[in-house]
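In this section we walk through a basic example: taking a raw amino acid sequence and producing a predicted 3D structure, encoded as discrete structure tokens. The instruction is simple. Fold the sequence below.
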Amino acid sequence: MEDVNFEEYFKPSAMLRFVPLLLFVFILSACTSNSGSETTESTDYDFPWYNPEISFEDRLQLLIAEMTIEEKISQLSYDAAAIERLGVPEYNWWSEALHGVARNGRATVFPQPIGMGATFDRELIHRVFTAVSDEARAKFTISQEIGNYAQYAGLTFWTPNVNIFRDPRWGRGMETYGEDPFLTAQLGMEVVKGLQGDHAKYLKAGACAKHYAVHSGPEALRHEFDAITTLKDLHETYLPAFKALVTESNVESVMGAYNRVLGEPACASKLLYQDILMDAWDFKGHFLSDCWAIQDFHSGHMVTSDVAESAAMALNMGVSLNCGNSFPALKEALDRGLVTEATIDERLATLFITRFELGLFDPPSWNPYSDINESVINSEEHEEIAYEAALKSMVLLKNNGVLPLKKDLRTLYITGPQANNSTVLLGNYYGLSNRLVNILEGITSRVSAGTTVDYRMGVLEYRDNVNPVDWASGGAKDHEATIVVLGISQLLEGEEGESLASPSMGDRLDLNLPANQLEYLRKLKEGHDNPVIVVMTGGSPITMPEVEELADAILWVWYPGQEGGLAVADLIFGNEVPSGKLPITFPESVDQLPPYEDYSMKERTYRYMTSSPLYTFGYGLSYTEFSFNDLYLDREEIAVDESLLVSVKVKNSGEMDADEVVQLYVSVPDPEGIQPRWSLKNFTRVSLDKGSSTEVSFKLDRQALEQFDQDGVARVEPGEYTVFVGNGSPGQRSEALGVKMLSTSFQVK
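The resulting token sequence is shown next.
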């Protein structure tokens, strides 16, 4: 993205310099041949802002100089109107691509982001979103050809969601990459890079870091809620992912959240926008509101008295694009002296720079992304990536030896409310695929053709069966093995207004497995010793200690996308080996959690939680055994500005080729007792054949050793630091679950 010096551009004297340029451009547009080497197309441009040989900044100023104030204001809303007299087409900024091009017809459906978080695989996430942007470009070209300029048909995607899943009750947590700031930042950056591409001039698509900031419920209060946090928690937990996306991956846009933060609406916060986003991080893109969030200024937060004041507050504080219907009131705000036309011009410029960078005013031959065609949409290559992502996302939580199942068992019973439910493949903000394979279909496709397979739904998803006669639970004792697919769907969790069966507007204030499902599992286990394998769907933790006791194996599969059924089946029958790791802590009980509305990190997530959870962050079993040996630091003592190298030998000592996720955590000196117990600082996924080994190395630099004080200031303190390396997070509960962990210490002077 190219910088724009707005102060210079909007001085009246500076605008005069464009007059001779404008005359030159009109003369140039009369030519019939192009002297540039990038295209052979005609340069007979009706408007100078369509001339690709002029810089984006010059074209931008030529265009803005011709626009009336009404036309300028019309471009600041998500559904920007056409300006026919200037050749500006309509453009709808609102498109979604949370895990595939969403709400816009046919597209490859990848796993929900929380599942992608469980892959701990940067390279895979980059490939996923490169595929997404390929499909986005192809669909956009076709949409333009047929005159479809509708919502969701554009190239500016309001993804990724890099909020921190600080509390498992939050219904939208499934849109995130989990509870850890480092993991979220690392995967979020790959989303941005995959979506936006790597061309020096053009954006493949626009990505958006949302929801800025300190936003993770309660859903029911989001239009009026004030998220109170310490500056330490703000900079240590809630902002690192946003900072990484802005400063390292150059995200094109940032979306403000609905709630207030420390008293200021997130979409009009001097602290968040001016002090941090602009001054500290030097953000160059455009800032937009969440949908109808500006209306909340006067209807929910009560910080303004009417829509004109709300629109003015948002514009003056940095919002360029209004998702909603508040910015048409900017004309009234201008008449009342609440905003200036210069500020409108400045905000407008950030939007048109994005449109120029997307190539929307250039001949197609100048833009390398214009050649992507329909053949990529739901292509075989993208199906394979979706399958790989589903496979690597699934987490084996328990296995008493029953998995993998042999394919040629004589009889198999499949049951449960989610077995034949394709809805659980989709999650939320999803696209549509003609190749959805649900769990029942996947298992049926992989089991031996000679196996007798019986299927019964058995129990409803979240309420008791109406029919009092229950034959289904008795099927388990009559078959060699039972696969019961339990869990929740987007009916019970998600965004306000979308979770149709949620009594708390998408949040899950009760984290238990629905009582009727638990009772059904009890009945399935009665009177026999045949194995019962639980496959569990859901985008957030379920408190299920009794399921842990009853089940012979538990495979957590999230909302796994269009290839989910095949991935489940291949893991169950041993065609593949589980390798996913939990990106969020699974508590044993909701009683272990602080109050939902409390945004303090005390007792939250694996970094601060002192009670023992059911399953720990970073945990996930395999069918093979991995050993960790020879943990080595290249230095035992460093200065505060120096770095060191950490290495460890990892061996697949089992009987199956498999992947393992090697994780590095650091514990910092903490004389005041306010620092995390330990924090993830790096990770890598390795593939090892049985019996083989490899050496994994990580660099620990200053940023990895920083700790934050109560004022949110980062520093490296002298003292003893402890390094942990293994296949999960440190702690007694991880050790009890079988996590392998090595540790050593070094000094910072």
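Looking at the output, two observations stand out. Residues 1-43 have pLDDT under 50 and may be disordered. Residues 384-600 form a domain with the Rossmann fold fold (CATH 3.40.50.1700). In the next section we compare this with other chains.
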